Automatic annotation (TrEMBL):
GO terms for biological process: termination of RNA polymerase I transcription; termination of RNA polymerase III transcription; transcription elongation by RNA polymerase I; transcription elongation by RNA polymerase II; transcription initiation at RNA polymerase I promoter; transcription initiation at RNA polymerase II promoter; transcription initiation at RNA polymerase III promoter; tRNA transcription by RNA polymerase III. One of its GO terms (molecular function) is RNA-directed RNA polymerase activity. Keywords: Nucleus. This is DNA-directed RNA polymerases I, II, and III subunit RPABC3. GO terms for cellular component: RNA polymerase I complex; RNA polymerase II, core complex; RNA polymerase III complex.
């Protein structure tokens, strides 16, 4: 993934799914995941009809500020309109991933139990993501809106 536009890519990590809870909602599962280096934990709500997952699978996760391959901003377009250009659409980061969401980073907090650790919370239209890990890995997420891009 080194070819991705680095200016808009805030975070990139591989996670192994360690647990799945599908009991609360019909089409939503909460994934519990651990990064491959063991430093970061992620809880993520996904629509399991659109993106079915199993315990033990590895997910490649990227958080970016834009879907444009050149790193340019989306210029106030709706995220669904980014690929709809006058020439039938352009390639975007979304083309390289299986599951894409747009959401708002709404909360940051220091982990009171572990020094130099923090929690970052993001909402993707009601589907939530919580990242727990080292401050140095998560501090770049201090932005308002992000795209979540996932592939297996």
């Amino acid at each position: 993934m080194a070819n991705l536009a680095q200016e808009n890519q805030l975070y990139e990590e591989n996670y192994k799914i360690t647990g799945i809870n599908s009991e609360k909602y019909d089409r939503v599962s909460r994934l519990s995941c651990t990064s491959t280096d063991g430093a970061t934990a992620m809880e993520l709500d996904i629509n399991h009809e659109l993106f079915p997952c199993q315990i033990g699978e590895t997910l490649h996760v990227v958080l970016a500020t834009s879907l444009a391959l050149d790193g340019s901003k989306d210029d106030e377009k709706g995220w669904r309109d980014v690929a709809k250009g006058p020439n039938g659409g352009e390639s975007t980061l979304a083309d390289m991933f299986d599951y894409v969401c747009h959401g708002k980073v709404y909360k940051f907090e220091d982990d009171e139990k572990i020094q130099d650790q923090m929690n970052v919370y993001t909402s993707f239209g009601g589907l939530l993501m919580a990242l727990h890990g080292p401050y140095k890995k998560l501090t770049s997420l201090r932005v308002d809106y992000v795209y979540l891009l996932i592939k297996k």
